[in-house]
Design a protein that fits this description.
identical protein binding; kinase; Rossmann fold; elongated; 7-stranded mixed sheet; 4-stranded parallel sheet; alpha/beta; binds adenosine-5'-diphosphate
C-alpha cells in the first residue's frame, strides 16, 4: 500500500472533518501518499482528486460539514459508473480507499470491493442507523443539538401550557428521537420501530395534564410521519393547544462534540491501519465500547436493533 484515497459521501455529519484529518495525518505518518477526493463517488468518477498534506487538514477538527464536500451520485449505482470509478483509482495510483458515509455509501464501498478495490468504511451519519456499530460519527453532536432545542422549547411550552411536538431526523431509525427523548425528559417518544396509537397518546397527555404537568414534549422521529399533521390531530382530540417544530437540517451541522471528534479521530486512524494491514472490505465501528472492525458484507447484512430498554425507560421516566 503506497497511496490511499479518502472521500465523504451521502448525508454529511459533524465529525467527518475530524475523520478526514485523522486519515490524512495517520496515512502520512505511515509513509503513505494521501489523496483527497471531492464530492464523494461523483468526484471519484470525474477525477476530482488532489494530494493532501498535513497542513491541508489544519484547523478543521472543530468544523461541521466536510471539507471534501459530499454528494449523491446516480451514475455510481450503475455497473458502468463503478467501472469508471475503478479506472480512475488506477489512473491516480490509489491502492486503498477510505469511504466516510452512511449505509448507501457503504453499499458503494461494498460494490467497489467486489471489483477488487481495497476499501474501508468509516460510519459518518447522524442517524446512527448502522446495525454493526453502537455509534456513528455525528450522532452525538446531533443529540446535543436536539437537546439544546428541546430545552428551549420546554421553556415556552411550560409558559403556555402547550403540547409541543418536535420532529427530528433519523430516516427509518428512531435513535435520535429515543436518546434525546430520554435526555430531554420528553413525555412521549414516537419512533418507527414502535409506531404509536393516537388514542393512547392523547390519553397520556390528558392524564398528565390532570396530574399537573405544565407541558407535554413529544419527540417524533421523521420516519413515523409529519409533526404538523400529528399536531393538528392531537389538538383536535385533546383540545389543548399543540405546536409542532421541525428541527430539520440544524441537526446535521455545527461543531462536533468531544465524543464525535474522538470517535472520528480513532476511527480514521484505524481505517488507515486496516488498509496497511491488508484488511480491506471492512468497516470500522464501536462494539462493547471499543473500536472494532467487521467485514462489510456481514456489517451490511445486520438489522439495526433499537434499544428496547431505553424505550421502556422513557415511558417510566416520563410519568
Ligand atoms: P448515505 O451514505 O448517507 O446513506 P446515500 O444513501 O444517499 O447516503 O448514498 C450515498 C451514495 O452512495 C449514493 O448517491 C450512491 O452513489 C452510492 N450508493 C448508494 N447505494 C448504493 C448501492 N446499493 N450500490 C452502489 N452505490 C450506492
Amino acid at each position: 500500500m503506497r497511496t490511499i484515497g479518502v472521500l465523504t459521501s451521502g448525508g454529511d455529519a459533524p465529525g467527518m472533518n475530524a475523520a478526514i484529518r485523522a486519515v490524512v495525518r495517520t496515512g502520512i505518518d505511515h509513509g503513505l501518499k494521501v489523496m483527497g477526493i471531492h464530492r464523494g463517488y461523483s468526484g471519484l468518477i470525474n477525477g476530482e482528486i488532489f494530494e493532501m498534506d498535513r497542513r491541508s487538514v489544519s484547523d478543521i477538527i472543530h468544523k461541521g460539514g466536510t471539507i471534501l464536500k459530499t454528494a449523491r451520485c446516480e451514475e455510481f449505482t450503475t455497473d458502468a459508473g463503478r467501472e469508471k470509478a475503478v479506472n480512475v483509482l488506477k489512473v491516480f495510483g490509489i491502492d486503498g480507499l477510505v469511504v466516510i458515509g452512511g449505509d448507501g455509501s457503504f453499499r458503494g464501498a461494498q460494490a467497489l470491493s467486489k471489483l477488487g478495490v481495497a476499501a474501508v468504511g468509516i460510519p459518518g451519519t447522524i442517524d446512527n442507523d448502522l446495525a454493526y456499530t453502537q455509534y456513528t460519527v455525528g450522532f452525538d453532536t446531533a443529540l446535543n443539538t436536539v437537546l439544546d432545542a428541546i430545552n428551549k422549547i420546554r421553556d415556552t411550552s411550560s409558559s403556555h401550557e402547550r403540547i409541543s411536538i418536535i420532529e427530528v431526523m433519523g430516516r427509518n431509525c428512531g435513535d435520535i428521537a429515543l436518546y434525546t427523548g430520554i435526555a430531554g425528559g420528553a413525555e412521549k417518544v414516537i419512533i418507527p420501530e414502535k409506531g404509536y396509537d393516537l388514542n393512547e397518546l392523547c390519553r397520556i397527555i390528558i392524564e398528565g395534564k390532570i396530574r399537573g404537568k405544565l407541558h407535554n414534549l413529544i419527540l417524533l422521529a421523521e420516519g413515523v410521519g409529519g409533526a404538523n399533521e400529528l399536531a393538528s390531530k392531537v389538538e383536535n382530540v385533546t383540545g389543548i393547544e399543540t405546536r409542532s417544530t421541525i428541527l430539520g437540517h440544524i441537526q446535521r451541522g455545527g461543531s462536533p462534540s468531544a465524543f464525535d471528534r474522538i470517535l472520528a479521530s480513532t476511527m480514521g486512524a484505524r481505517a488507515v491501519e486496516l488498509l496497511i494491514e491488508g484488511k480491506s472490505s471492512r468497516v470500522v465501528g464501536v462494539q462493547g465500547g471499543k473500536i472494532s472492525d467487521m467485514d462489510i458484507d456481514e456489517a451490511l447484512s445486520m438489522k439495526h436493533e433499537f434499544n428496547e430498554y431505553l424505550y421502556n425507560l422513557s415511558r417510566v421516566l416520563s410519568y
